[in-house]
Design goal:
Layout (H helix, E strand, L loop, with lengths): L8 H23 L8 H19 L1 H14 L5 H4 L2 H7 L3 H28 L5 H13 L2 H9 L7 H13 L8 H17 L4 H23 L3 H35 L3 H4 L7 H22 L8 H24 L8 H21 L4 H20 L9 H4 L12 H14 L6 E3 L8 H7 L15 H4 L4 H4 L2 E6 L11 H12 L7 E11 L2 E8 L5 H14 L3 H5 L2 H8 L1 E3 L6 E5 L3 E5 L6 E6 L5 E5 L9 E7 L2 E8 L4 E4 L7 E8 L8 E5 L5
Parallel strand pairs: 1-2
Antiparallel strand pairs: 2-4, 3-4, 5-8, 6-7, 7-14, 8-13, 9-12, 9-14, 10-11, 10-13
């Protein structure tokens, strides 16, 4: 990076300070005054950040073990939140501390690295320091970087290794000499976005396909070496880099890799898909005409020098491959556009340089005018007080204003009423999935006072399927009209139960509405329903038939005795670790609490049950199981880790209770329960 020496170090330091101040002021002004009602992903990563600090303060060892397990197998590990630990320890639960942490820890470095990458791509022949500062300020005001950051997504962290990987590829001559150390570094950098977020896989594939060709052709163009020598160096370097990426992924994320290979994401994410034209219009609305026009202007370099032609082709290929692969799976969300935003940023800077070179006026004067435009685009995209006429929507990116969802007082009144209703051990659920109402809106409106008292409902049919847990809740919150956020018939796991409860038919006959309504938004009322009794078998069968009409294959998954047993039981979860779930394998998954047992009461079918305890971990000692009738113990057994026992039941129709307790400790006390064929 020889031309970097021409950038004044003092200018880099000053630029970093200015970006830090800009980011701090912007975050504080934006977050202050927001309604404390956040939905789904806008809340989830923030809470992961907060909970990480709580675990860290409780036990550094278990904090590390929890993080290690998440990295190994989780689709959405908390690694991006964990790196913000200094902010979470300082600010605690405060939303402004979280967004500020993302901005200062990730956004500011990304802006500086993007400016560096743009500088290397443009390669200005004069005013190098000016060009770097201009690119840095452009990045600091770049709307596609800011939008997911202000919404609460930490995904911009993945651009740090991506930008570094581009800088390494652009500057280290991997096409004309073998550099094992650099190749190892590049392999680690290419893998790291996947460490932070699974969906970066498409970005990695695009870079893995294009970077070797870029280095190969670049070596021939710049150094004039033979194709044979360039091919040898490129092959060795990228073989080392590829092996490094693969080894790191398998060693640290083997469980997730197995899930990815065995999952058809395009099938389960069909609810998040858009038609082809919808993908294109969403891209346009996200970036706006101004940014895209600069990227289009950069295509003029395809008719310039071989080096510039290669650079633009390389960037174009990455954009095209990412867009093609991602849209085969689902539509882009604001955070998913970040890799495209990086590549479009490089093209935009090339477009800016083209404007500079074509203007008769001195570059600083031209740049000042462009800076005012960038500032105007930035302000109009985030501040509602800035006038935004209708015609501006064509030119500007889609705006992202501070969160002012609904009637905050009514949300708070609803959460306080729920908190008052809930007795120790009781839970609530929410049969709604929209920006106005879902589980996360209530948890955040309560400032986490309801956290741990909720059972989350499934949201998308083909992702979570039908889960038992929301039907175990003592209270259900829903709205009229029923709220969903995805296309019709993709969220029947929300709409079918909600319709039954509102109408009082089927399983809805087990619920009773209490209190009045809560006007959480204009024209939208929320209600609290109390579950008065367990469901009957007939009510559960009627519910399932509605789902089978939409998904006939679900009959094989849910049409068994274990699911009906789960749905018709009265369940009391043990504290802290208590668990009662239905698995697609046709088994119940039960875990006792830390100090209290998990118990469930049901009508006997007469068929015996097989109970199996999971594999042991350190100090695991198995479980204690009691079978009760009318509070009298009729069977008492102990099951060791990896042990199996058969529990014989009295004649069909008897009301029974199974109590599963820890023995000495609750470690790894997962019990799998399946119904065996009746021997009578």
């Amino acid at each position: 990076m020889t031309s970097d020496a021409k950038i004044k170090i003092s200018a880099i330091h000053l630029t970093a300070i200015i970006l830090t101040i800009l980011a701090t002021v912007h975050v504080v002004f934006f977050v202050q005054g927001e309604h404390h009602v956040y939905v789904n992903d806008f809340r989830n990563f923030w809470i992961a950040y907060w909970e990480s600090s709580l675990r860290f303060k409780e036990s550094v060892y278990y904090w590390a073990v929890h993080l290690r397990n998440e990295i190994w197998a989780s689709d959405y590990n908390s690694m991006p939140a964990v790196l913000l630990l200094p902010f979470s320890l300082t600010f605690g639960y405060a939303r402004v501390g979280y967004i500020l942490g993302v901005a200062l820890t990730y956004f500011v470095p990304v802006a500086l690295l993007s400016a560096t990458a743009a500088y290397l791509t443009v390669q200005p022949k004069s005013k190098q320091t000016f060009a770097f500062v201009a690119f840095s300020m452009f990045a600091g005001l770049y709307v596609p970087y800011w939008t997911p950051t202000l919404l609460g997504f930490p995904d911009i962290v993945g651009l740090i290794p991506l930008a570094l990987a581009y800088i390494v590829i652009r500057t280290t001559g991997l096409g004309y000499r073998v550099r094992p150390g650099v190749a190892l570094l590049l392999g680690a950098l290419i893998w790291m976005p996947f460490l932070f977020r699974r969906w970066y896989a498409f970005t990695i594939v695009a870079l893995a396909l294009s970077a070797p060709l870029y280095c190969l052709v670049g070596a021939v163009i710049e150094k004039g070496i033979s194709w044979r020598d360039a091919l040898r160096s490129t092959t060795v370097n990228f073989a080392i880099g590829g092996a490094t990426s693969a080894a790191l992924a398998l060693m640290l994320q083997g469980g997730l890799i197995q899930t990815v290979l065995n999952t058809s994401y395009s099938s389960i994410y069909v609810a998040y898909q858009r038609p082809a034209w919808g993908h294109i219009t969403n891209l346009w609305q996200t970036f706006g005409t101004i940014y895209l026009a600069l990227a289009v202007a950069a295509q003029a370099f395809l008719f310039g020098s071989l080096r510039k032609r290669l650079d633009v082709l390389f960037i174009n290929i990455n954009i095209a491959v990412i867009f093609a692969l991602f849209t085969q799976t689902q539509g882009f969300g604001p955070q998913h556009y970040l890799p495209l935003a990086f590549w479009f940023f490089l093209l935009s800077c090339l477009g800016l340089s083209l404007l500079w070179s074509s203007m008769a006026k001195p570059v600083p004067a031209v740049a000042a005018g462009q800076a005012l435009v960038a500032l105007g685009v930035f302000a109009a995209s985030f501040y509602h007080s800035i006038p935004r006429p209708q015609w501006a929507s064509v030119l500007l990116p889609r705006p992202t204003y501070k969160n002012l969802i609904g009637n905050q007082r009514e949300y708070v009144r609803l959460t306080k009423r729920l908190n008052k209703l809930l007795e120790p051990g009781e839970k609530f659920t929410v049969f709604a999935s929209s920006m106005s109402l879902n589980r996360d809106t209530l948890l955040s409106a309560s400032r986490e006072a309801l956290a741990g008292k909720d059972l989350d409902a499934s949201h998308v049919d083909l992702i979570q399927g039908l889960t038992v847990s929301p039907f175990m809740a003592q209270y259900a919150v829903l709205s009229n009209p029923i709220l969903t956020h995805l296309p019709e018939n993709t969220q029947s796991v929300i709409t079918i139960p909600a319709k039954a409860i509102l109408s009082g038919q089927g399983i809805g006959a087990a619920y009773k509405r209490i209190d009045g309504s809560f006007r959480i938004a204009n024209g939208l009322e929320a209600f609290i329903y109390e579950k008065q009794r367990p469901f009957t078998s007939a009510e559960v069968n009627a519910l399932l038939e509605e789902f089978y009409a939409i998904y006939p294959s679900w009959r094989d998954v849910y049409g068994n005795a274990a699911f009906r047993l789960a749905m018709t039981s009265a369940i009391e979860l043990g504290n802290k670790y208590g668990r009662f779930e239905y698995a697609a394998s046709g088994e119940l998954i039960v875990h006792p609490g830390e100090t209290a047992p998990t118990r469930f009461t049901f009508l006997s079918s007469g068929a015996p049950l097989r109970l199996t305890v999971g594999a042991p971990c350190a100090d695991a000692d198995g479980v204690d199981v009691q079978l009760l009738r009318a509070q009298e113990t009729i069977t008492h057994i102990e099951i060791a880790p990896e042990g199996t026992a058969t529990l014989s039941l009295p004649d069909a129709g008897a009301m029974l209770t199974i109590v599963i307790s820890k023995r000495g400790n609750p470690w790894c006390d997962v019990v799998r329960i399946a119904e065996l064929p009746s021997q009578r």
